[in-house]
Design brief:
Length: about 80
Amino acid sequence: MNLLHLFTTKKNSMKKFVAVGLVMCSIIVFSSCKKTTICTFTDSETGVVTTDTVKTGEMLHEEAVNQHTKNGWVCQ
């Protein structure tokens, strides 16, 4: 079945509804994906290990991990 044909016939209104719904759901699901990275920091004076979970959207994730690394954290 041709995709253009799907959207040009009046008989296929249910198929249009389902197709548009699937596209919208896909956009919502993939846009809300978050990455998680665990970063640790060991205080050289006290020996205390601090752990932080960096959980951000994909666009900000790399920036957040880079900022932790610049501040002496080890991220995995």
